[in-house]
């Protein structure tokens, strides 16, 4: 979801060796120009015994290949992609017009097929799940579990699915299945968030609302790093599986997990009942699995490139920075002064002020 580019760096001269080097290419040359990640049409190019590509500058990085184990990369060479890199000059007006059209069609279909109680299946789905138990906590957890199984299950089938039907078609299948389930889960939470057993009541604490508001606001900078390229989300551009390394990824390799934990803590502390706890347990559990599954899938796709990124990053925020594995550039702040983060800021503030509208829309569905 970002445009891949190349990085330039220099490696130390190759030392003289007594054994004949083993090359991964049929033609034995010491220096090779490496194409950027995601530019290879052949998925199997990167394996656990091959060197690592990079794509973070306009120049090409050259690597020296001695043997299967010679894959070390300097700490100042970025192996993954530059997240949130949005070049306005490279954008096509026709692509964004197409995106607007696709978004309009998706919302229309979602309303007719799922949201509208007279024509859609959303209410039928909620009623079916609600028939399992009279407990809103159980229903809330089941809705989260169903979404998690479908969402992570389809994500796990991405590689064979894309080979079978193509990247764009699989993205349509993935989004068309996950989006209605996500909407149903969110709507049920909004409508039943104050049901269940009240476990604590802290809303009268003077400073708590401000603290939780800031926590929730910051969580959205972690939650959506994988949706920077909206054109790929809508399948206008061909969807790709990205190996991000800069920006928020320097703080944590799994920002969506961290952001979801922050969001759940803020809302659960504020609401303070059993329904909020059930929703948080389901969401955090789903994202914990997603973190493990995401690492597994990236390892399969990128091999040793992912191993290097993993060695430089951490799941726990700031852990890799504190123990010295992640070296922050002096101008690290510039990785956040980008249009996608500005858009996230605007949308997050807009969502906060639109809470009354979201609640009213959810209530009208009678789920």
Please tell me about this protein's structure.
The protein is mostly helical and 367 residues long. It has 13 helices and 2 strands; from the N terminus they run E-E-H-H-H-H-H-H-H-H-H-H-H-H-H. The chain has helices spanning 93-115, 122-130, 136-156, 158-165, 167-192, 208-223, 230-233, 255-271, 274-302, 304-312, 319-322, 339-353, 355-365; strands at 31-33, 62-64. A two-stranded antiparallel ribbon has the order 1-2. Helix 4 (158-165) crosses helix 5. The longest helix has 29 residues, at 274-302. The two termini are 34 Å apart. Mean pLDDT is 83; it is low at 1-71. It comes from Tagetes erecta (African marigold). This is NnrU domain-containing protein. Its main location: membrane.
What's the tally of helices? 13
Query: What class do helices, strands and sheet pairing give?
Result: mainly alpha
Separation, N- and C-terminal Cα atoms: 34 Å
Helix content: 40-55%
Give the total of beta strands: 2
Identify low-pLDDT runs.
1-71
Largest beta-sheet characterization: 2 strands, antiparallel
| Overall geometry | globular
Strand order of the largest sheet: 1-2
Give the integer mean of the pLDDT values: 83
Q: Please tell me how large the radius of gyration is.
A: 23 Å
- Strand proportion, as a percent range, falls in under 5%
**What letter string, H or E per element, gives the SSE order?**
EEHHHHHHHHHHHHH
Oligomer: single chain
């Amino acid at each position: 979801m970002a445009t891949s580019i190349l990085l330039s760096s220099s490696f130390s001269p190759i030392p003289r060796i007594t054994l004949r080097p083993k090359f991964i290419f049929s033609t034995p040359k010491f220096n090779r120009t490496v194409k950027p990640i995601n530019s290879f049409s052949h998925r199997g190019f990167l394996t656990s015994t091959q060197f690592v590509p990079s794509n973070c500058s306009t120049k090409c990085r050259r690597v020296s290949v001695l043997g299967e184990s010679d894959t070390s990369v300097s700490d100042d060479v970025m192996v993954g992609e530059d997240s949130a890199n949005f070049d306005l000059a490279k954008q096509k007006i026709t692509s964004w017009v197409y995106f607007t059209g696709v978004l309009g069609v998706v919302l229309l279909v979602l309303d007719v097929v799922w949201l509208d109680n007279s024509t859609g299946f959303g209410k039928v789905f909620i009623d079916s799940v609600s028939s399992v138990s009279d407990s809103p906590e159980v229903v809330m957890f089941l809705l989260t579990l169903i979404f998690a199984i479908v969402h992570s299950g389809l994500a796990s089938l991405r590689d064979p699915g894309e080979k079978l039907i193509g990247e764009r078609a699989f993205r349509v299948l993935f989004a068309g299945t996950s989006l209605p389930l996500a909407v149903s889960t969110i709507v049920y939470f909004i409508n039943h968030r104050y049901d269940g057993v009240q476990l604590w009541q802290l809303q009268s604490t003077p400073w708590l609302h401000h603290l939780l508001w800031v926590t929730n606001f910051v969580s959205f900078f972690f939650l959506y790093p994988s949706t920077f390229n909206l054109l790929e989300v809508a399948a206008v551009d061909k969807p790709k599986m990205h190996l991000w390394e800069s920006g928020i990824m320097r703080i944590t390799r799994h920002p969506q997990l961290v952001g979801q934990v922050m969001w759940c803590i803020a809302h659960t502390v504020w609401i303070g009942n059993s329904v909020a706890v059930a929703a948080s347990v389901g969401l955090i559990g789903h994202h914990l699995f997603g973190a493990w599954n995401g690492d597994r899938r990236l390892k399969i796709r990128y091999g040793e490139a992912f191993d290097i990124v993993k060695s430089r990053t951490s799941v726990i925020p700031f852990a890799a920075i504190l123990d010295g594995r992640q070296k922050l550039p002096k101008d690290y702040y510039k990785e956040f002064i980008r249009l996608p983060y500005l858009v996230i800021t605007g949308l997050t503030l807009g969502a906060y002020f639109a809470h009354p509208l979201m609640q009213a829309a959810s209530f009208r569905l009678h789920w």
